Amino acid sequence: MKVTPKQYAESLFSSLQGKSGKEVKVILDKFVDVLIANNHVSQLDKILDSFTIIWNRENKIVEAEIKTANKLDKDVVKMLQDYVSELAGVSDINTTETIDKDLLGGFVVKYEGKLVDNSLKTKVQTLKNNLKQ
Predict the structure, then answer these.
(1) ∠122-125-128 over CA atoms, to 5°?
(2) pLDDT of residue 64
(3) What are the tens digits of pLDDT across the range 60-102?
(4) Per-residue pLDDT, 113
(5) Were 90 and a residue from 10, 43, 60, 116 both cysteine, which residue would form a disulfide, CB within 3.0 to 4.6 Å?
(6) In the chain, domain spans
(7) What interhelical angle do 5-16 and 22-37 show, nearest 10?
(8) Mean pLDDT of 106-111
């Protein structure tokens, strides 16, 4: 039977529940031994991606990407994180900031497969489309 990266991740997550310190190290060492024994070390990236998804879901953490035309100051980033936290109903947000000069201004936030587009580019395009009608 072939074990999928998701199954490995679920198994690792359940093994680590409630553990700390030396116990975690022992579990991780054994986990790596199993990957080596089954010749699945090449799947480690996929396993870790699946583990992160499970970890975030269980700990109510959301991964979000913020795209802006210019670098934002810390207060604005915090405000956007709080906004996404409220929208997603979670307590913690891990954000990645990306500069996209094509946006002209404003921001675009992607999280959990959702999109909040408050970019100047989109507003100009919407205005253009409305004027054509």
Answers:
(1) 150
(2) 93
(3) 899 999 999 999 999 999 999 999 999 888 888 999 999 998 8
(4) 87
(5) 60
(6) 5-57, 61-132
(7) 160
(8) 93
* 12 SS3 class: helix
* DSSP per position, 64-75: EEEEESSPPPHH
How many other C-beta atoms are found inside a 10 Å radius of the C-beta of residue 7?
Answer: 13
CA-only gyration radius of the chain, Å: 20
Q: Provide the β-strand partners of residue 115.
A: 110
Contact of 132 with 103, CB cutoff 8 Å? no
Q: Which two tokens stand for residue 16?
A: 């680590």
Q: What is the pTM of this model?
A: 0.68
Q: 94 and 80 in contact (C-beta within 8 Å)?
A: no
pLDDT value at 104 more than 90: no
